[in-house]
Amino acid sequence: MSDAARHAPGGTAGPYVLALDEGTTNAKAFAIAPDGAILSSGSAPVAVSYPRPGWVEQDADAVWAAQCAAIRECLAGVVGTPAGITISNQRESVVAWDGVTGRALAPMLGWQDSRTAEFCDWLRSPEREFAVASTTGLSLDPMFSAPKMRYLLDQVGSGPVRIGTVDAWLVSRLTDQSAYVIEAGNASRTLLLDLAALDWSPAMCELFGIDRAALPDVVASNADFGVTAGLDFLPDGVPIVGVLGDSHAALFGHGCRNTAEGKATYGTGSSVMIPSGTDRSVRTGVSTTLAWLTDAPMYGHEGNIVASGTAMDWTARLLGVKPGRELDELAATVPDSGGVSLVPAFTGLGAPWWDRQAVGIISGLTAGTSRGHVARAALEAVAHQIADVVDALDTSDLQVLHADGGATASRLLMQCQADLLGRDVVVAANAEVSALGAALMGFTRLGWELPAVAQQEGSRYRPAFEDGARAAARSQWRDALARSRAVPA
């Protein structure tokens, strides 16, 4: 079916799931048929503000308005009411809102926000870091939600305050405040969830000064999230049937179910995740997380990179080209970076270093350095950071890395990634794998058979580097990292 037919007046008839995908910079909505086909879509941009160094904020009410706009555009292309609604959402970001009116009480603190770094340092001790990691699987870092929750609660004061991640916020708005729940995988990114008990940890709530009773209820990924109410674009009673954090949704959508296959999502930041089944062991430098919860938990090991798409966009602005294709074309004018390295530690470094004191640098400049070399270094920085996480994950079983996200359109970046990993990189045929993954989770609730659409390959990139070339490139990157972190190489 052509795009014109999908968006024709009157739209397409037939059963479908309305899959919402609320990301850092865009809110999207898709009508997805039982065979996995996208019948219609809508999108709206979401603004991000940086009021101070290290601060990253969004207007939560504007996020909701953008999501509503995307839904309206999507629904204009289909006929009938969706069988259910699913949500894929940016993780770790925190919203505080009025439990009666539903209005946001303060700016939403983005997952990249590092204003609580000093608070985390104040809490930090070997005993506490061990307790946090062994209970939650996470590092004591401002990227995660609990420090942001504490900060917002201090700002908004008392009253009918609700606080949660973006999935909890969207479900609350969709149900006219009747549902106050958080999906278990999203909850596992807060520093408050006990990975063994799959519920809020009293000890972690006490550590961060958050009343356990004030938090939303933790529910499974394909639970009963409530039904729509009070919306002008959907009738009351449409069930919300599946919710996943965007990285988890991508893992589910790619069909990764064992340690031989992992995925990397190339967005504003990047997430590398590998399923681990029942293994929730703690590994240095990376997180143990709950990928999803259905009849049984699926755990995963993950590394989160703070700046990947951000790094490429910043470099494009610096060089006076448009992000995406123009930056890619500029990088392709040279065979390599000419010894230039770019470390995009704009708000410090995430996995596997967790160094919020690291600073962004460009090193290796010479009189012969060109704009192409800097552009190439930006793409390589993304690939090196992914490789750092894969190394930290210690995945000797990993054979293929599935890739999704906007930057996968860069053939140069994907080849560079395969070269630095020494493993095949397979780009998803479906660019909207996170939305599709959440929809497939909803299918399990609705009793629909899971189609195999997500496993269709788009492009496969095989390593072309010899071992010596790979080792030299990685050594140059490690030298630059050491300068960024002001530590001996």
UniProtKB/TrEMBL annotation:
Ranges where the Carbohydrate kinase FGGY N-terminal domain occurs: 16-253
Record GO terms (molecular function): ATP binding; glycerol kinase activity
Superkingdom: Bacteria
One Pfam family recorded for the sequence: FGGY_N
Cellular component, GO annotation: cytosol
Biological process, per Gene Ontology: glycerol catabolic process
Sorted UniProt keywords: ATP-binding, Kinase, Nucleotide-binding, Transferase
Carbohydrate kinase FGGY C-terminal domain span: 263-443
InterPro entries to which the protein is assigned, alphabetical: ATPase_NBD (IPR043129), Carb_kinase_FGGY (IPR000577), Carb_kinase_FGGY_CS (IPR018483), FGGY_C (IPR018485), FGGY_N (IPR018484)
Family: Belongs to the FGGY kinase family.
PANTHER family per record: GLYCEROL KINASE, SUGAR KINASE
Protein name as catalogued: ATP:glycerol 3-phosphotransferase
